[in-house]
Amino acid sequence: MRTNTFSSLLIGAGLPFAALAERVVHDESFIPDHVLRVNSSQVPTGCQSRQAVIVNGTSPGPAIHLLPGAQSWIRVYNDMADQNLTMVSTYTIIPLRNSRLTKEQHWHGLTQRMAPFADGAPQAAQWPIPPGHFFDYEIATQAEDPGTYFYHSHVGMQAMSCFGPLIVDDCGSSPHQYDDERVFVFHDYFTETGHQMMDSVAKAPYKGVPETDGILLNGQGVSTGKTAKPGNPGRKFIFGGGYSSPRGLAPVFPPRLHPRSPGPLPTGDEEIEDGESQQQTSNTDDCILPVIDVDPGKTYRFRFIGGTGLSFLTMGFEGHSNLIVVQVDGSEYNVPVSTDRIQLGAGQRFDVMFTTKTEDELKADGDKKTYFLQFETRDRPNPYRGYGVLRYSSQADVPAAPENPVITLPTDVTDWLEYTLQPLYPDTSKAPTAAEVTRRIVVDCVQTQDEATGRVVWELAGLPWTEDSRTSPLLVDIYQHGEAAIPDYDAAINNNNWDPKTESFPVKLNEVLEIVFQNTGSRVRGSGFVESHPFHAHGQHYYDIGSGPGRYDADANNAKLEELDYKPVRRDTTMLYRYDDRVEAGQAAGWRAWRIRAEDPGVWMIHCHILAHMMMGK
Ligand SMILES: [Cu+2]
């Protein structure tokens, strides 16, 4: 049986695997820095109620704040009875060490065979966490890591609700001064359960990718067919303020309140008081628009997080057109870019300096207290428009959604901040030049139908990564079998750059790769349908060298980079646009190109961040 239920492109690097052999056993005395308990529960969401995989009782889960240059342990309990779990982050997590739950119940993350649970899927770097078990994830942040990330499950469709912000705090290291910060984490609301969605896309007959039934902001929002009422939910302190760079104060390092002890473990049943930092879910009879409270005359760092499992968003604020993008994907700070809108693909993050109106400006605006944030999906058959509310006074009621859009958002989303984001400190840039590239890997993204099963699959460079193509995670194999399990580099060079035995793309240390994703028209029934794809890399971040319609032309793009004297910042998720919604079947529709000098040994996945596409082979 060829089941394509989980797959992704994966890069195994030629790695000194002895470094992986260090073993740490956590006994009962070990206290992790953070604890996440993942459960499945019926929760009110999108003005409805649905079964969802939640973290510490809510969706999104709590914001995890980490210090730069510090080691942290995050313990993830899988409290679900019947589903596997892995937690990953857009921050690089190093799941290399073992943990032990109790004397009688062991889980050796790297050595124990997984029972074949229904949703179980082989992973690149670790086994999933079986029900009733936990895993201690180690995160060692670097001094240059302050930025916005998020964590989410990497099994099945769990990430549609099982996720939360992960923020490496500035601790005074930001080149920007701001008074406070706010998190804007978006995700999709689907009516279908994760299992129904898996059946729609990963089985024959293919029923199509379920479209979004609503976009939620910080867990709140309105699903299709529902209407938000005006009301006042009280002042919201969603996710807390973290440890920002308070204007005029000396850098605080380390912050006094940084949690070193998790305290009592949350069970998910706790009463959550209004105003507490972790409140996320709404009541069905409390169907109001999501609200972000701000004060007049202040500068905020807005952290936009694309936690969507499908939707590609464009958004802007009513009455506020100066959004200054200072950081993307938690990379080095960029030369500030002023824009009137944000585009957010699944997996992406944008950090924005946002100055609120002064009291006088609010008065001049008719004593207005609330402004809409309008967000719309792009590149899908059923567009969704939703609203959040920027509120200047918690006394003011949150209004109902406006009858008509308050701003006009562009239909063409292929040009926003392309060839624009350059490092604030260019001298520290390590972006490889065209001359340094040692190998170009062209990855054709092809939607096709598997003749044997009738299933619709996504292939990358001719590779649909299937559940039965690996019986154990590749990194685990390398850990156990050493050299014998290392992917065959020479075989890969003769096979579209991937090794047929391990189904991985081996890379030698210090190779400079140019990785080009080539979007193509669907081959399924010759439809030529094109979709946009947010491509995401685990592990080392890459330098994005642009995108364009048609087929990639290295000379033309290099000439453009040179002409612009463009030095890119690092990214971990960038959009492979579609440019056209339909081309000839198999015809090139558009491309996205990255450069990366392979410096971090490991087994790293590269995949589209659309959950359904991952389940279909990508
Ligand atoms: Cu995709």
Which helices and strands occur, and which strands form pairs?
Layout: E1 9-12, E2 34-45, E3 48-55, E4 64-66, E5 71-78, E6 87-89, E7 99-100, E8 106-107, E9 134-140, E10 147-153, E11 163-168, E12 180-188, H1 194-202, E13 215-217, E14 220-221, E15 291-293, E16 299-306, E17 312-317, E18 323-328, E19 337-339, E20 342-344, E21 349-355, H2 359-364, E22 370-378, E23 385-391, E24 439-449, E25 456-460, H3 474-481, H4 489-493, E26 512-520, E27 533-537, E28 542-549, H5 554-564, E29 570-571, E30 573-576, E31 588-597, E32 603-608, H6 611-615
Parallel strand pairs: 2-5, 4-11, 12-16, 15-23, 24-26
Antiparallel strand pairs: 1-32, 2-3, 5-9, 6-10, 7-8, 10-11, 12-13, 13-14, 16-21, 17-20, 17-22, 18-19, 18-21, 22-23, 24-25, 26-31, 27-30, 27-32, 28-29, 28-31
